Please model this.
Amino acid sequence: MEISVTMNGTARTADVEPRMLLAHVIREEFGLTGTHVGCDTTSCGACTVLLDGSPVKSCTMFGVQADGHEVTTVEGLAGADGLHPVQVAFQEEHGLQCGYCTPGMMLVGAALLERNPDPTDDDIRWAISGNICRCTGYMNIVKAIQTAAKAKAAAPAAATA
Amino acid sequence: MATEAHEDQAEIRGIGHSVKRKEDARFIRGKGNYIDDIHLPGMLYMAILRSPFAHAKLNGIDASRAQAVPGVVAVVTGELMAQHNLAWMPTMSGDTQAVLVTDKVRFQGQEVAAVIAEDPYVAKDAVELIDVDYDALDVVVSPQQALASDAPVIRDEKDGQTDNHIYHWESGDADATDRAFADADRVVSLDTFYPRSHPAPLETCGCIADVDGATGQATIYMTSQAPHAIRTVFALVAGLPEENIRIVSPDLGGGFGNKVPVYPGYVVATAASLLLGRPVKWIEDRSENLISTGFARDFHMHGELALKNDGTMLGLRTSLLADEGAFHADAQPSKFKVGLFHVVTGSYDMSAAHVVADGYYTNKAPGGVAYRCSFRVTEASYLIERLVQNAAYELGMDPADLRKKNFIRKDQFPYETPTGFVYDSGDYHGAMDLALEKIGYAELREEQERKRAEGKLWGIGLASFTEAVGAGPHKDYDILGLKMNDGAELRIHPTGKGILKISSKTQGQGHETTFAQIVAEEIGIQPEDIKVQHGDTDNTPYGLGTYASRSTPTVGAATAMVSRRVIEKARKIAAHLLEVAEEDVEFTRPTFSVRGAPDKAVTIQDVAFAAYTNFPDGMESGLEAAYYYDPPNLTFPFGTYAVAVEVDRETGVWQVTRMVAVDDCGVRINPMIVEGQIHGGLTEGYGIAAMEQITFDETGNCIGSNFIDYLLPTAVETPRFELGETVTPSPHHPIGAKGVGESATVGSPAAYVNAVIDALWPLGVRNIDMPLTSAKVWEAIEAAKAPA
Amino acid sequence: MLPSRFDYHRASSVEEALSLLDDYGEDAKVLAGGQSLIPLMKLRFVSPGHLIDIDPIPGLDGIEEREGSLALGALVRHNQLASSEIITNGYPTLAAAAPQIADPIVRNLGTIGGSLAHADPAGDLGSVMLSMGANVVLRSSSGERVVPIGEFLVDTFTTSITPNELLTEIRIPTPPPRSGGSYLKLERKVGDFATVAVAVTLSLQDGTVGSAGIALTGVGLKNIEAAEAAASLHGTAPTDEAFAEAGRLAAAASNPVTDVRGTDTYKRHMVEVYTRRGLATASAMAAG
Model:
């Protein structure tokens, strides 16, 4: 089945079997391997992408369901003027170790800051509670999202995803 | 071309600097290169059929329906593997393991057959169409069942194997321990089970085998923490010439021990690629990862601690039952059958100890790995720290005081333990005092009294662990005969930049940054100018890989030593450039200067250029060296963790209100990364204490086969950590570092459990085995209420 | 874990969906948010021949009060519930449950209709609806019927929906003034299915309990309405004793089994505790 998706701002089409999961469409058809698969049971969030701006688990969606929608992956986080503040902050605050959960965590962080520009520690922890990290103990992920919030507040014009 | 020595020089960001990680540049852009990201032309996909039974005779396999599915290229069975003498493979513990079943299945999830197809979805479709005829057999799911005289013999294919016993192992001095116990006023004992858990890295295991039929070259991309060891094992298993095997371990999405062993899937994919002449990719799904690859722990422990009434510890006795699963596949040093469990005397000075252990086969997944742990140090630390707390209460002492009374004192190092370890250095009182101060121990105890008076359950738990990491010295440490030594090669290019090639393999620990910092510290080239290469056996020196907190103790040492070798040569070149004798050259990184004439100087960059352009007659060109490091001893990181909890008496729900972790891992190379490692370890320790476990029902069904049942803590449950540090360098390590990746997973489970037991002690609760689910906590409270 | 093949049909209107159901009924599954269905398909526990995607149907995601009820379109997402002012102001049981369903990312896609039609005994919304006396609207090409939630939820993963019907709307009676509600859920971690959860809806009238609804999650073959426990409260003063008695009755109505989450004894005990605590919370809220 032919689908049209706005992938990271670019119109893309693909001919996919209906059973092909969105995660695989992104990885195999569009060649964007920053979206990872970690668990198969909608538990870990490594495959998180933004669908029309909201985080969804792309292993629990068929690619055909994304037809006509906008999908943002980690590869689409950076803008023309450089890295997204969340990306900068994850490196700055050591918010990642093995890097496998990182794309999902950053996308959730970026989406959170769109609707809550000044989240508390608890807000962030609840927002990322659909994403598992095995390396960081979450401490520095929370810190990174807070740092990104401050950076966005300091430079609001340059800081939209 | 000599430059001014006092030219504006940036500070060298060597040891002690929180340098931002070099590897992050790719990860934050989604440009990591994990196994499943690799695509080779003409690649096929493999899916494995696994046994639904835990123990069953295999009567036959009919693959005709699967074979007929369009897109299926081949179905591989044990029979086919046997034709190539590949139906069985050696394990890391010198046992054998079935690659694909030929006679009977021995655990649920065991590999029965594999489909190779043009598409991964089609491969899964075809797996469902393989018909297997089984006869179910009686099942053994615990060592207690395994040792019964009428238990079915799981490994009946082994010559001379008439029961399920694998090994008996002892350490320490039984007679001396008996004497210590005879002198005791009190003996405190504890029976506890450390449940089966799984490292569960967020990325599962997988490989792409690419065997070139024309040249015999086998390139195998593999999620491996130990690529060199794997290459040698592959050479032994498959009979391939080792120079034709190249193992490439790409970016790993975590490992925690899970990616040390050789798994049947790797062998089948390689055989399939060899037979079909095309690359074959195999990526486990999560369920396959949890039900068939390296588990951890599953260890039944009995411990007895002998004490005087004043709290003086005299001796320790332990007896242990290890549930090894269907094949003895522990990844650990050959000489030590229960790993380094004999470090069980922990941080305490006592005269005698005796460890007795027996390992058994059961119908459960094989592959005991040390989940973020140095070979069962975790189990040892848990047992002693639980025993010490219970002993304190029985003696009417504060657990902090009992620990301090018995700690090995700073002036006793190096300290030889009753089981033969020689602890390198320590300041246990210092770490404990800092932890107590940070958490406000005295005030918390007062608060606890007030809360208890109000009927509330508050608890404070401590754990003062000592780890044994960095295996290890060649006289004692090998795996399958391969000495556990590691290497580093350093080459400085003409422009003063360099490449460091190491035998370790990062899985998130940040080797590309920290190892460059060690070079920076030693030779004065900034870490961003040193590329660190690892994971590719064709392009890195031999070594046994990254696990058991061994990278810094072994490869970190090799890196420092190889840097010093480079400096030795650089000094000669500097002398040549400065036109003085070598003895007259002083090196203060990054500058070589003339003794007594500091203005006459050249930098390491100048020397590097000269190494290729202007070196003395009779000298080889270039500036490079290699070093293989044989550690003189293990290193012994330590620390004290303090946890405060609240327990809801009515529901058994408990919550961590404070968590203070003071770690001493010797010199910290990159403090930011060290703290990140500790955060992660404390979280996995919490997961183990609170929720992670794999259990089996009586028919051998695995419960815990996905992340719905195998629970990993999210940001909401995970405690907020407060860290502290003391620094006691290792005297024998070239840079004084000890390794830190696993300390927090080793030390913290006992701290969490001790806190909950501390809360419940007045109610009469003496022990709850992990994980401390609210249900188990409530039941323990209820059981304590019931009249005895 | 990859699903089997199926034919995919996209419905752009309820009528089109109903016509597709007429064509493929027995061999079809309705796909809404997919957060329960797709995991089961990946595990190949279900392998329908046809999927009818109703997600694109406009107008099925409304949240509005009409004729004394809250009408929720079947495609309302869990996160919409949590952020709706109508719900946070007037439907406290639902407001309490919404942020506890699954995890925040699943809630972005998971729908209220899909969740109820899935009929998982560990599902949260079934109990919420039972405690509030909700009805579901089932449409087919031959008409529409309104079914009380208690009749809709038949058994584990089984509802009274027929293969040619589509759940289009959920109607919750608007609670009277001086109402309160709570949803207490014991989960081992965020995203876990409930070990035990209790939904409580209660209103006060002249200092006594007017109406009450209590329903239980995870302690039987379906969400259980603890009718006797609720009835015991009618006309009584909202006291700790009355709540404790209701807790005991609710525990007696539960039928849990021992598993890795806990023993049946523990779960029954937790029903008692959470019913009591939930009633106290709801009562305090109603008393304002």
Observations:
- Chain B touches chain A through 54 residues (CB under 8 Å).
- The first strand of chain B starts at residue 44 and ends at 50.
